[in-house]
Amino acid sequence: MDVLVTLFYILFSICVVYPPTEFVSAGFTIAQLFESFLGSENMNFIGYHMKRTTITALIHSALPLGYIFCLLCAGERNPWLPAAAAATAIIPLLMCYRLLCWWENDQVKHPVVKALIQYVTPGSDWRVVAANLNIEFRNVDKVSIQLNATSRFVATETWLIKLTQYKLNVVKQEECTLVATATDSHNLTPTGEDEVQYINIEAIPTRDDIERFTFRISTTALRDLQPRLLQPVRVPEHISLMPTLIERFVNVFKHYVDQNPVYLVDQELELCIGCMQYPADVKLNRRCHPPPAHLEGGPPQCQQCNCRVLWCCACMGRWWAARASGPPAGWLSGRATCPVCRATFCLLDVCPARLASS
Ligand SMILES: [Zn+2]
Ligand SMILES: [Zn+2]
Ligand SMILES: [Zn+2]
């Protein structure tokens, strides 16, 4: 019986400390269970995490006592149990004392406040920094990346924040360099189409009194993060970032488009209406032949698109990939529709457009 209780309790403790995805989606995490006590993270970001770290530390410290309690409830009668109960009860009591220290004296010993204190200007208070962080966190253009079940990375306009179970790392964007330190790739499918690359990034503050921290995100998450950063993440030469599936597809797409005959235009090519960065350089011009009569009834046939040259090849490739279905190996043989007039086209119909030299 007590073996069963022990196994169950170990499993329970692991789920409390590192909640699996099923627990997170079912709402069985400390943050979700104590939602009403913690308040809204969006309204009071710093206050929320001060309470969350406190309650997390308290609950984790009470886990050993909970085990003895479970054994007692299961009918276990061992002469050592009362002594064990007393010993394990000391842990949450000591933790309570520590938490009291965190919260007294203007909370200056609280790990969340400690992270902010470095940014307090003379004559001001850590609450000023906290208020600034709260306002920025409320902004919709922050980027928030879940690192694992218990930690998160947030980039706001001026701050980079790493949230973990018991603490918070804060650094000002302008006073910090982000450097990629290592990468690792994982294959989700045997064909390697769904390869995911993770990158370890170290945040190195320019000031010595601020703690460094590292975080690990996927290359896809890094692409979402980049536009929010003041300075791009430095990638040393020995580290190479893997292109995403879409980027690799766009490269192959371009390669095939370049083999199609050139479509000559007599007007200057305008900027692509998709990215507004590169000149539009593809024209959808039907070249494929209709299928023989006995094969009719298959996929929709291509139609002539009468739109001007509006898109660059990369944007057209991304448009194609976004609408493709099935395994990526079959994307090129499919069909897409013109983003403007919805005419169906195939890869043979995408012609590189060039200005006719007069
Ligand atoms: Zn474009
Ligand atoms: Zn069109
Ligand atoms: Zn076609």
UniProtKB/TrEMBL annotation:
InterPro entries: TM129. The chain crosses the membrane at residues 6-34, 55-74, 80-100. It is a multi-pass membrane protein. Keywords: Membrane, Transmembrane, Transmembrane helix. It is found in: Membrane. It holds the Pfam family Tmpp129. The keyword Transmembrane helix applies. GO terms for cellular component: endoplasmic reticulum; membrane. GO terms for molecular function: ubiquitin protein ligase activity. One of its GO terms (biological process) is protein ubiquitination. Belongs to the TMEM129 family. This is Uncharacterized protein.
